[in-house]
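[[Per-residue structure]]
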Amino acid sequence: MNASLTPNNSPKVKRKGSVRRPRAGSHLPPFSPETHESALYAIRNYLKGRNSYDTFPVSFRLIVLDSKLEVRKALQCLLNNGVVSAPLWNSERSCFAGMFTVSDIIHLIQFYYLKATSSSSYDVASDVEFFRLESLRDIEKELGVEEPPLLREHPSASLYDAAKLLIQTHARRVPLLDHDTETGHEVIVSVLTQYRLLKFIAINCPKEITQLHLPLRKLNIGTYVSNPPVEGQDRFYPIATASMNTPVFDVVHMFSKGGISAVPIVDEDGIVVNLYETVDVITLVRLGAYQSLDLTVTEALHQRSPDFPGVVICTASDSLGTLMQLIKKRRVHRLVVVEGEEEEKRGGKKGRLLGIITLSDVLRYIIGDLVSVRMGESVERLIPPEEDKVVTPPPPAEDAAAAS
């Protein structure tokens, strides 16, 4: 007898009960303060085995200015080539003569602005037109500004030593000089900047970068608004700030007095709305606006180049590794720290100024705590004394990509 299977008389299949299988453990070690410190130690050892030549891109150009060049022509050269500094060369003595940077422009503006306001008959435009780069140090003496040290480093020196020099002298760049074996004259090879050095680290130490997981505020990287507020000081002390109605010359004075390169622009609630940088001053000088620096920040920002990348912000809870990944992807010179969701939950205001982080702050933390004693000497507190400073061998060639 043939029986047909129907939903009513089909045999029931007994299924095994499901058993939850344990999840396989992660192959990555758990992040901890120890892994963070280990990553820093590995990065420092890596830099000790590398020199400045390793950071050079495959192709690059170097802008060198003659010290007898007029300031206006030098500025035009910087703008045309998209750079904010250049080495100076003394053609009479055939030697390196220092660096021409935005700080020199700031001092130049202060000098001529003060002279123009003190004497109505003083012709600023004609004087600037013929002012030469070799006379910049005379202006610093008249303003009472300390003359910048004549820094230099050999390109064969380790990147670790170059980084220490940048930190100890508070410089943002160091010229790399060699000597011609035939003539004995100095040769300007290139300029190593903080950005190029940090980007080199981000490209060549990817594993270590991922282990830098601790938040920026906890690592004390950067300058933060004093909490509680300091009596008699601005509410954002020690950070210099301005509003959209602040005269540009007041901001220029902040640059010179504080030795800083940017001032956050905030509204009445403390929300960051923009950032005025020293490079913005170059545009004003090129346009001849140094004769009327009473214009407001709002008016000055209208002169800004349309390709301005914008203000880069972060929160205090972002990690150092995230910041280094950002440096790897785009040109960043500073980050404005603002209050985020965590601060908002505690009664803060999202987007309000909390701090500012520069590349100097990042490099100082990665390299370690250096205490300057005398030029060329330092006290290091990087690794325990019982550990040997063993330099690890360099990685394979494919991992040693140079930062641009």
About this structure: Residues 33-386 form a domain with the CBS-domain fold (CATH 3.10.580.10). Residues 24-28, 371-404 have pLDDT under 50 and may be disordered.
